[in-house]
Design a protein that fits this description.
This protein is α/β, with parallel strands linked by helices. Helix content is 27%, strand content 28%. It is globular and about 55 Å long.
């Protein structure tokens, strides 16, 4: 499977991003995502699309018993291993769609900014439900449908080069979206809000929280950050796996 994150130029540019250099404290959504995590002391945690492993490290710091980070990019996994130090975290080069998802294996499955690269998101929901223990938590951050439906995922600009408005088109047509990101051509997958939320409900999950990411006040002076309040970029969702509820419908 093609993976932009193993492109040398793309990976070099990604490494320059603030969230790559400084970790979770430079992620604009972290102040909202962090409180959504369940208690992880003594728990088993799976990270789908772990990247540099920041959320795996957080889980380990919180006392997780077992942590597995998966990423399709060998460059990302190599970087995660380099950063993990002495922490007991397993990292594996493996795509979200290729993982075996053993039944009732994990207390918490987390995925940050990875699911918008997956075409069949409902299959992921089914697999995650199977691999979670009863009442286990699925916590993910995905690019917001308003963002993925953006034309070229970019603003329309004034003659002076200032963002004028965010154009959207073909919202109800899920599927591939082509954009430029970090100087490279990137293919993402657009999913509607209905697909995401009802996909969870139809596959045995109970919604616990749905939030649209807003950057914190202390980041408002960073270049372009105020424009992030003009349209949502990320959707944060916390859901619990209700095993009996799904079994009753089968």
């Amino acid at each position: 499977m093609h993976n932009e994150y193993d492109n040398e130029q793309f990976f070099r540019e990604y490494a320059k991003m603030a969230r790559s250099r400084d970790g979770l404290r430079s992620a604009g959504e972290w102040h909202q995502l962090k409180p959504l995590f369940p208690p992880l002391q003594g728990k088993d945690v799976l990270d789908l699309g772990c990247g540099y492993g920041w959320h795996c490290e957080f889980a380990a710091e919180q006392g997780a018993l077992r942590v597995l980070g998966l990423d399709l990019s060998s460059k990302m996994i190599a970087e995660a291993k380099k950063r993990s130090g002495e922490r007991q975290i397993e990292y594996r080069v493996c795509g979200i769609e290729e993982y075996e998802y053993p039944e009732n294996a994990w207390d918490c499955v987390v995925s940050n900014l990875a699911l918008h690269y997956i075409g069949n998101i409902e299959a992921v929901f089914q697999n995650v439900h199977r691999t979670l223990k009863p009442d286990g938590i699925f916590l993910f951050n995905i690019e917001h449908p308003v963002f993925t439906a953006g034309v070229g995922q970019d603003w329309v600009y004034t003659e002076a080069g200032m963002p004028k408005y965010w154009p959207m088109d073909q919202y109800f047509r899920p599927g591939e979206r082509h954009t430029r990101f970090l100087g490279c051509d990137v293919v993402k997958q657009h999913h509607t809000l209905t697909q995401i939320l009802m996909g969870l409900l139809h596959n045995g999950f109970e919604l616990k929280a749905v939030e649209e990411a807003e950057p914190p006040e202390e980041m408002m002076e960073l270049p372009g950050m105020k424009d992030e309040l003009r349209r949502p970029m990320m959707l944060l969702v916390k859901a619990a796996a209700r095993k009996a509820a799904r079994d009753e419908r089968m």
